[in-house]
Task: inverse folding
């Protein structure tokens, strides 16, 4: 029997965005700043689980328990990434935020208020809590986008093209 050609992971996109927006649309409909409400902030945070949950669900659905075990082994095997990349991993996202704030300032925009960050820093262990939440949020998304979706795209295209497509999505 001839192996089937890898398919674009449409179901993943539907599930990832669906799970995310299931939480985010009701928050948006409140027309309130989610950072001002611990409840709304918690609901927004739950939406962050969408891509990761979609990747986990579809991995177990498609590959069973063995595929799930391989998924988690790859998630927690820190030796898969060389040390030089950890600096980029940890610094790129904050650097991009700072650059976007600078561009906004140069264009005459109002500076961000950072209400959540100010509150977090004011609490005992606030900086640590904020850092953990920041990294956790990123990690939860990457479980799906990098841990599931990118593998499927690389089965269709070369790594650079697959990464560009994923970046656009």
Result:
């Amino acid at each position: 029997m001839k192996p089937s050609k890898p398919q674009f992971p449409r179901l993943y996109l539907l599930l990832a965005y669906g799970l995310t927006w299931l939480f985010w649309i009701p928050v948006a409909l409140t027309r309130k700043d989610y950072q001002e409400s611990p409840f709304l902030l918690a609901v927004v945070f739950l939406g962050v689980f969408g891509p990761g949950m979609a990747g986990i669900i579809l991995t177990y659905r498609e590959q069973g328990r063995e595929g799930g075990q391989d998924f988690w082994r790859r998630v927690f095997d820190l030796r898969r990434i060389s040390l030089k990349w950890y600096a980029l991993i940890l610094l790129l996202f904050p650097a991009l935020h700072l650059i976007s704030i600078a561009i906004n300032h140069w264009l005459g925009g109002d500076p961000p208020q950072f209400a959540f960050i100010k509150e977090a820093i004011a609490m005992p262990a606030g900086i640590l809590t904020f850092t953990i939440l920041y990294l956790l949020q990123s990690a939860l998304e990457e479980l799906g986008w990098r841990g599931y979706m990118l593998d499927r795209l690389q089965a269709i295209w070369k790594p650079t093209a697959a990464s560009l497509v994923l970046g656009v999505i």
Notes: The radius of gyration is 19 Å. The mean pLDDT is 88. Helices lie at 10-29, 38-76, 83-106, 115-122, 126-154, 159-168.
